[in-house]
Amino acid sequence: MFLLAAYLTISFVLPIVLSGSPEFLANLTDLNPPTNLQTIDIQLGELTITWSDNLSEDIKNHYNVKYIFDYKYFDSHTWEIDIRLSTPDYTKTFELHRGVYVRVKNVLLNIEDKKKQMKESNWTVKGIQPPPGDPETLVSNFSCVVYNHSNMNCTWSIGSKAPSDTLYIMYYRQSETTTRCAQYFMDAQGRHGCHIEQDRIDLEEDVLVCVNGSSNSTMILPYYTDFDPQIYEKYDPPLNVEILPNLTVKWDKAPGYAIQDDCFEYQLEVRELAENRIELLSASGKTKFLLGNINPSKRYSVKVRVKLKYCKETKFWSDWSNEDFIEPEHTFNVMQTVFTLAMITVLVILLLMFAFRRYKVLAIIFKPIPDPQKKFKELFEEYNGDFQKWIGYQIPISKADEFYPVVIEESINFEA
Ligand SMILES: *[C@@H]1O[C@H](CO)[C@@H](O)[C@H](O)[C@H]1NC(C)=O
Ligand SMILES: *[C@@H]1O[C@H](CO)[C@@H](O)[C@H](O)[C@H]1NC(C)=O
Ligand SMILES: *[C@@H]1O[C@H](CO)[C@@H](O)[C@H](O)[C@H]1NC(C)=O
Ligand SMILES: *[C@@H]1O[C@H](CO)[C@@H](O)[C@H](O)[C@H]1NC(C)=O
Ligand SMILES: *[C@@H]1O[C@H](CO)[C@@H](O)[C@H](O)[C@H]1NC(C)=O
Ligand SMILES: *[C@@H]1O[C@H](CO)[C@@H](O)[C@H](O)[C@H]1NC(C)=O
Ligand SMILES: *[C@@H]1O[C@H](CO)[C@@H](O)[C@H](O)[C@H]1NC(C)=O
Ligand SMILES: *[C@@H]1O[C@H](CO)[C@@H](O)[C@H](O)[C@H]1NC(C)=O
After folding, report:
1. Which of 160, 192, 257, 317 has minimal Cβ neighbours within 10 Å of its Cβ?
2. Is 192 close to ligand 4, i.e. is its CB under 6 Å away?
């Protein structure tokens, strides 16, 4: 009985609660897909796509109608899930040289609970062919750099099959204004480029670019791209890099950047100059860094560069800042000095000991002092202090004493 009640509730009551109108569910088995899908070329790859949903007024009154839009480049295998829209039109920038499919479908949502999807139609697909031109006339390796507070350089390599008379022209678009680049250059690697100096780039808005070209002999395939200029910004290097005596490196952020400090990543290059050993260190957000690992007897150079890492990640590091140096310390090293002194003392003692043994210096130094009493003993004991008598007796002896015996060795002459 309870089970039957539950079954009836699920079968009949639930759909009524969800859709509000049971008779529509039967009709919705074949929801019409959108029709009349059209593209309007705005400029530089920006297209507005429009369609008709081809749904009856009745359906529109009972459901919340939405449109799902996807796209896929001809050279890609996956559809990019893009956006759910309320109106039957959408504006987006495409890399048109690749060719692109766009597709739209109708989706009915519950009119009260808009998260609940009731029904969706089949897709309606449209292919947008690339503009005419051999793909090998297309520019390659296109890249831009924004620097010096919104100057911009873009560079590219010419297409491999582009005739020698090909003239490439770059157009860029911001704030609904399309500008033809006026200042062209060729860099050291032979890459072509355009330099934008007069019109500064607005960092808050995407830049649209088209590089097309003309030649007398063939059609040149135009190149389309768009990008966030903040990601291609090359920052000015940090200023006033200085190493404090306590080995804290500090520096200043280059002026004129209105970005919060904790978005920045700094990189320090610490170079030990004698052996040219380099250590790279990271400092996030802060404009100082305490160095460890410094050998006080060596000389180092330190420099810093910067990029955005944490809020958006920029493609490029800034140039390196100025360098500051850590000079080797010539301080009085107590341990070393004590050790050296000890070594010298030990050496001196050893040398002296050697000298004493070799030259019997000790024996000379400690030779007993002659005792006059021994010599004068006779004077007092036998001559009773009579010096005259004693001297008469002493003289011959003392004379003999003065002569040392000389041994004359006879040399034997073997040749004789
Ligand atoms: C839905 O189908 C019923 C009959 O099953 C029909 O009377 C009604 O007109 C249909 N409604 C729509 C919007 O097609
Ligand atoms: C939706 O697509 C299927 C299969 O491609 C097809 O059988 C069906 O008729 C289509 N429905 C409508 C309303 O076009
Ligand atoms: C709109 O849908 C109806 C079916 O409801 C179909 O017959 C008609 O061909 C569709 N319109 C277009 C322009 O495809
Ligand atoms: C592309 O250009 C960059 C400079 O912008 C260069 O470093 C790189 O080597 C180039 N790559 C190719 C494949 O030409
Ligand atoms: C940077 O821009 C200023 C103008 O804001 C200009 O005077 C200066 O020459 C530029 N510097 C470089 C290196 O391009
Ligand atoms: C941009 O191009 C100009 C002109 O060729 C050149 O002077 C400048 O150094 C370039 N700057 C960068 C960051 O590439
Ligand atoms: C290149 O593109 C610009 C801007 O869309 C256009 O005005 C110009 O006619 C094009 N040039 C060629 C040769 O296609
Ligand atoms: C290093 O010295 C500076 C100023 O001389 C001081 O502001 C800083 O706090 C010191 N840092 C450390 C880690 O001692």
Report:
1. 160
2. no
